[in-house]
Amino acid sequence: MTLQLPGSPSLDASDDSSPDSAAGQPSAAASPTAPAGRLSAIAIVDSDSYTKWGVSVLAAMPGAWDKKVILIHTAVAPSEQQLAAAIAGTGFEAEDIESLAVADVIQAIRDARPDVVLVSMLGPAATVVMRDIHAMTNRPVMLTGLPGISIPATEKAILRRVQADLFLLHSKREVRAFDELAIRLGVPGRFALGRLPFMTAEAVERHPGTDIIFAAQAAVPAVREDRVRLLGWLAELATRHPQNRVIIKLRAVRGEAQTHAELDSYEELLDELAATPEGAPQNLVVASGPMLDYLQTAKALVTLSSTAAIEAIALGVPVLAIDEFGVGPELINEVFIGSGLLANADALVDARFASPHPDWLDDNYFHDAADNDWLDQLDALLQQRSLGTLPDRQPLTLRKGGALRRAWDRHLEFGELDQGVMAKVAIVVGVPARQLLRMARWVRRTGRTLARGKNDLDTEQG
Asked: What CATH class does 202-361 carry?
């Protein structure tokens, strides 16, 4: 696919630096300032998982593009160690990534005038940032997506990113599900297919060892009792198979934030288990760092529904997806139905791992690279931008107030982390206005209550 814009050189998106090319290698990070005539893209990222996904997608864009990553200041921003793990193997280094407050991010986009902005952020924050970008003159093409398994499709995922020009998904099944849901919701949606950017089988030489990796998740299982039970099965697995090290691979260690809040971390639960009279087996440990580092030497991977399962399959690592707590949207594991990977606790402690059924693969993340269309769709949108015909994608709720209103919305989402001048103005104007609005609503409610009381009294006296 060749991209030719007015005043720009021809760019071949099948460049060897694209993971969909024969080499499968990500492109290297580029200068933050694009020379005249070259296309440029900026990724805005926030949490650990969105940083990993966003930087990997940016690296998969044509190698001739100029690329830049901005880490926006939020409460879920990754630590230095998490950042290093997230960008490992992408061609970007920590020093390539600029960390900015939200108001400075918006100004940086205005100043840089990129052709594409990849918004790789949690939904509520993405909504606010995309509204600001959409309001810019000659705005960039906005690309967005989710950092992993996205079955089932959800209303929030679509509605919070409705202003994006293109929504990147990673399986044929996901594209169908999101397209069908957008139609039911009656909202515009343009969904594209691309392989998960961190499926790097072609570029990795595996040396299978004896480690069994458990890909921990903050959101599932959600109940402490279930997390304790799961840890007990992992301890039993370690006890029955002393020749294997069972590694609980964490996304965040103590003191670190992550995309989803974790109330009962396995690190803490393992400490509690170790303090019991029975203790914890010595070959059951916790660890952090890039998942790829562990998969390169893993014997097998265990999870409920982590995207690490897809990474493991790509590398030929056997997988077990625990279904002891059920299968459903709340566990994010419906995608594994028909894969042959779902198994119960007995299979786990017996170390009965599996490879997926071949007929499951094509519809679920392992389609032919020739089926990918996200770069072609991005090409078409860039052509539209060059002609000034990008669609006017309005937010679902139109809010009056222009730039001041957008600044107020930014303040509501980012709080003290938004230190821009407009934020201060918005607070001065918005806080009293909000109090007056609340008072007016209270007066109306009180008036209606008093009126109803008077009518009831008149009825009784009549």
From this structure: alpha beta
